[in-house]
């Protein structure tokens, strides 16, 4: 009897359990369907939930604690917004024939409606409490307007103090005082494997901090080589694996003390987003460029005066070299500092001021720290024997003179005013100087079709660098017609004939 009761009870239990299971399945199936329906309404394919948050009392070792560096650097890293007025194809017909075509078709010939301005963004680093900010040249290059957004959300309009495309560094100024700053660190002291932080505004996510290690130093990735500066670019980047994305450019690379050791500049990527490595301009170069821009308004580039080559196994075999370390001198330029110091083709430079150089990027970085007229000790090998020479560095013109800040003044000539071109306009338009015309309606220049704001860069075959050049070249012009060449602030180039 007990056995029979047990079997019946077991059967009833099984039946009840099955019913509960089926009911639960149906209930879950219904909930799953509702959830799926909601997911179809709003989807975020690039966002994923993490696991539940849990507090942790694990103590972080002092050497791996990034809190101090983040607290020190974040308030002094700014968001930079740029505005570009899209160049119109032609405000007026861009041709020497313009006056004749305008006379035939009317004053509206060739005019087009302006387009909406384009926007850009990046990062910057406050290096002085009175408003000086370092960023990348490519962040602000040719911008019509530069706006700085502080970490505390205050906004200021910035002016361009100066820029150096060969190192991709630019210096901005905002009118504000008592700002938080990041102090310079010594990038020479960085060690491979040392922890660093990248601070910036990637993808418009302000005040973002990422961590990584120094992967390499003295990297040359040929990102700054252009037709305009292919022989002058300085690439000796700090390579890190700290995550850097679009918008990080111009931001700070700091060590664990929060000291500035680099300006984040580029990423190695097939997609445009971070894929493993990023590159920063060393603070040793940044500080020299900034110092030059503040003191002289121009970067003072010193040159050794020699064409150099990287040494590899093939070159060593071809030239009979006994070492793969150092930089090979292929040619020495006449009247250069290298020539005067006795350096020759075939010599292998191994150190500058007792700092070892094993590749071209390291040699260029060391020389770039100095100005024309400075002397450096160059250690080199000749026929396997070590020698040294004191080289006086020179500029592009094989002179020791420094480039002086422009002191151009405004003038009035033939009823029109001519003003110097600002550094920001020169950088934006890619010109080295010129004369901007204003008050044109009261002058004979109006008859050419020229408008206020036009920047004259050339008169006939003569270059115009400053306003005084306009008067000088036009007074020396005897008779006939000469063409005036220049550019408008929106980038439109134009030609205008003027007779005498």
Pick out its properties.
alpha+beta, about 500 residues, 4 domains, 7-stranded antiparallel sheet, Pdz3 Domain, single chain, about 30% strand, Thrombin, subunit H, 10 helices, about 20% helix
Descriptive report:
This protein is an alpha+beta fold and 500 residues long. It has four domains: 76-173, Trypsin-like serine proteases (Thrombin, subunit H, Beta Barrel); 187-296, Trypsin-like serine proteases (Thrombin, subunit H, Beta Barrel); 306-392, PDZ domain (Pdz3 Domain); 411-499, PDZ domain (Pdz3 Domain). Helix content is 22%, strand content 30%. It has ten helices and 25 strands. It has helices at 2-41, 67-73, 98-105, 137-140, 283-296, 313-319, 337-340, 360-368, 423-429, 467-475; strands at residues 77-84, 118-128, 132-136, 145-149, 155-164, 169-173, 195-200, 208-219, 237-240, 252-254, 260-268, 277-282, 306-310, 327-332, 348-352, 355-356, 375-382, 385-392, 411-413, 416-420, 435-438, 455-459, 462-463, 481-487, 493-499. Strands 19, 20, 21, 22, 23, 24 and 25 form a seven-stranded antiparallel β-sheet that branches. The chain has a six-stranded antiparallel beta barrel with strand order 1-2-3-6-5-4. The model is unreliable at 20-44, 87-93 and 100-112 (pLDDT under 50).
What is the second-level CATH architecture of the largest domain? Beta Barrel
What form results from the Cα inertia axes? globular
- Main beta-sheet strand count, sense and barrel state: 7 strands, antiparallel
Count of separate DSSP helical elements: 10
Number of domains: 4
Structural class: alpha+beta
How confident overall, as mean pLDDT? 82
Q: What percent of residues adopt helix (DSSP H or I)?
A: 10-25%
In the CATH hierarchy, the third-tier topology of the largest domain is known as: Thrombin, subunit H
Number of strands: 25
Q: What is the alpha-carbon Rg in Å?
A: 32 Å
CATH superfamily of the largest domain: Trypsin-like serine proteases
- How far apart lie the N and C ends? 133 Å
> So what's the CATH class of the largest domain?
Mainly Beta
Q: What share of residues are in beta strands?
A: 25-35%
Runs in which pLDDT lies below 50 for 5 or more consecutive residues are 20-44, 87-93, 100-112
């Amino acid at each position: 009897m007990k056995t029979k009761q047990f079997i019946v009870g077991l059967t009833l239990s099984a039946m009840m359990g099955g019913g509960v299971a089926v009911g639960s399945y149906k209930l879950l199936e219904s909930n799953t369907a509702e959830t799926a329906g909601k997911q179809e309404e709003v989807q975020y394919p690039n966002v994923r939930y993490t696991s539940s948050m849990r507090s942790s009392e694990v103590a972080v070792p002092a050497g791996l604690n990034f809190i101090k560096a983040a607290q020190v650097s974040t308030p002094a890293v700014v968001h930079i917004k740029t505005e570009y007025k899209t160049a119109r194809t032609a405000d007026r017909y861009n041709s020497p024939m313009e006056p004749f075509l305008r006379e035939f078709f009317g004053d509206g010939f060739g005019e087009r409606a302006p387009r909406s301005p384009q926007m850009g963004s990046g990062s910057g680093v406050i290096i002085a409490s009175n408003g000086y900010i370092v960023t990348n040249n490519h962040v602000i290059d040719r911008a019509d307007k530069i706006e700085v957004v502080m970490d505390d959300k205050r906004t200021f309009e910035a002016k361009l103090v100066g820029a150096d495309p060969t190192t991709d560094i630019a210096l901005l100024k905002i009118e504000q005082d008592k700002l938080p700053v990041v102090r310079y660190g010594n990038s020479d002291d960085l060690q491979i494997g040392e922890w660093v932080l990248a601070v910036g505004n990637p993808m418009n996510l302000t005040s973002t901090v990422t961590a990584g290690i120094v992967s390499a130093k003295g990297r040359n990735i040929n990102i700054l080589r252009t037709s305009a500066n292919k022989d002058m670019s300085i690439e000796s980047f700090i390579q890190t694996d700290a995550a850097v994305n679009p918008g990080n450019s111009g931001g700070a690379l700091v060590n664990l003390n929060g000291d500035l050791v680099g300006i984040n500049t580029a990423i190695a990527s097939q997609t445009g987003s971070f894929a493993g490595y990023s590159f920063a301009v060393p603070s040793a170069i940044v500080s020299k460029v900034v110092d030059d821009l503040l003191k002289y308004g121009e970067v003072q580039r010193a040159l050794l005066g020699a064409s150099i080559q990287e040494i590899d196994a093939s070159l060593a075999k071809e030239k009979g070299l006994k070492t793969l370390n150092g930089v090979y001198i292929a040619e020495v330029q006449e009247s250069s500092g290298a020539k005067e110091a006795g350096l020759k083709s075939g010599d292998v430079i191994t150190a500058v001021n007792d700092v070892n150089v094993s590749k071209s990027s390291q040699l260029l970085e060391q020389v770039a720290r100095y100005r024309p007229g400075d002397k450096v000790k160059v250690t080199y090998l000749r026929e396997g024997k070590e020698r040294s020479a004191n080289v006086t560095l020179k500029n592009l013109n094989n002179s020791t003179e420094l480039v002086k800040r422009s002191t151009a003044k405004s003038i009035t000539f033939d009823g029109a005013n001519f003003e110097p071109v600002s550094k920001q306009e020169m950088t934006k338009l890619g010109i080295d100087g010129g004369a901007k015309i204003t008050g044109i309606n009261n002058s004979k220049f109006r008859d050419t079709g020229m408008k206020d704001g036009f920047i004259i860069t050339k008169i006939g075959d003569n270059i115009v660098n400053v306003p005084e050049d306009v008067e000088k070249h036009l007074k020396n012009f005897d008779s006939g017609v000469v063409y005036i060449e220049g550019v408008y602030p929106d980038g439109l180039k134009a030609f205008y004939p003027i007779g005498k």
